[in-house]
């Protein structure tokens, strides 16, 4: 295994979020199917992560692969400047229909981080175009995560280990506590009063903060954020890159709160674990602020591979599958299965909390975890499960079969018990 990884190019690879000198050797995957990852040495792992939350229908869904094959032979890519194509147009129309309210205008980009960057530019320019030149700051929330590029990093919780050293390099934003009770609501409202006229938008991961700790908040808190944004006339950007496409039990987390953000960012499961695609969806009034005889008021954003036809074909096929298969019901059912299954972890001394929301199950531990050791133990049990910070989480494919889900849950319980 060692030889293979190194000889294949391991010496030349820079791994994500990894101290290369101390890096545990990655597994070598050769094939995926359903909820399984097959390794080069013949072992098969049950996937409890769904490849960073992208594989909403599991791996290699036949309908999605067929749509991509057809698109691949015809036109894997063409530039989007001055040329459009049916897969992107159809996808824009369908995203407008499936997202709440008048979120009707879709800008395609190539990754989640870029979607957030583009949404930030969109928010700032929304105000510039209306003569408000001082709205250059953003409010985001403690435990938030919004991506790895510079603008995104500035929105993340400054205590996230990943970026704490970059403080001086980044633009300064305002990091608030989520308004979950009277005290935090008063504080959040104060910020909105104090910074009036200087805020372009509030950015939130609705209902679930993913990377920052798999932390859940109530629909009431999300509604409160939306109401206060409307009241104080600042834009609301919902980062649904993790929560979108069924993960929390509804198509979008915002649906559960009846909230229509001004801008919604989509990524990850949008292209259902095939090729990278993300989107920024804007409401009518946001779009209207750019509609002008003045070329300077145009939105200046257009990644080279934007609206990649192959990715759009995959995303369209994924939406077909959402229509033809009971994906959302499966995600809703999983909430109880995860809660009841993981409940036995509760009795263990170091366990702080066990929680589930849709197809997300979390066991939070008091203190730091030895991720490397855990990883090896999970692999030993035949499962691919991630731990991060102080928690172990399960975010399987929404359609994982009962038996595999139970094996994931049992593996987590077993390892927590040890
Ligand atoms: C993953 C993620 C991003 C960044 O997306 P990339 O495609 O990795 O750039 C942004 N926001 C949230 C909430 C995410 O989970």
Word description of this protein:
With about 425 residues, this protein is of the alpha/beta class. Helices cover about 35% and strands about 20% of the residues. The protein has 14 helices and 17 strands. It has helices spanning about 1-10, 50-55, 60-75, 85-100, 110-130, 150-155, 180-195, 220-230, 255, 285-290, 310-325, 325-340, 370-380, 400-415; strands at about 30-35, 35-40, 45, 105-110, 135-140, 175, 200-205, 210, 215, 235-240, 265, 280-285, 350-355, 360-365, 385, 385-390, 390-395. Strands 4-12-11-10-7-5-6 form a seven-stranded mixed beta sheet, sandwiched between helices. The protein has a four-stranded mixed beta sheet with strand order 1-2-3-15. Strands 13-14-17-16 form a four-stranded antiparallel beta sheet. Helix 3 packs antiparallel against helix 11 and helix 4 packs across helix 11. The longest helix is centred in the first third of the chain and has 17 residues, at about 110-130. The chain is globular. The two termini are about 25 Å apart. The model has no long low-confidence stretch (mean pLDDT about 95). It binds pyridoxal-5'-phosphate. Pyridoxal-5'-phosphate binds near residues 112 and 113.
- Rg estimate, integer Å: 21 Å
Number of strands: 17
Strand order in space, largest sheet? 4-12-11-10-7-5-6
Hetero groups bound? pyridoxal-5'-phosphate
Helix fraction by DSSP (H/I, runs of at least 4): 25-40%
Number of distinct helices: 14
Main pleated-sheet profile: 7 strands, mixed
- pLDDT under 50 segments (min length 5)? none
Task: Give the termini separation.
Answer: 27 Å
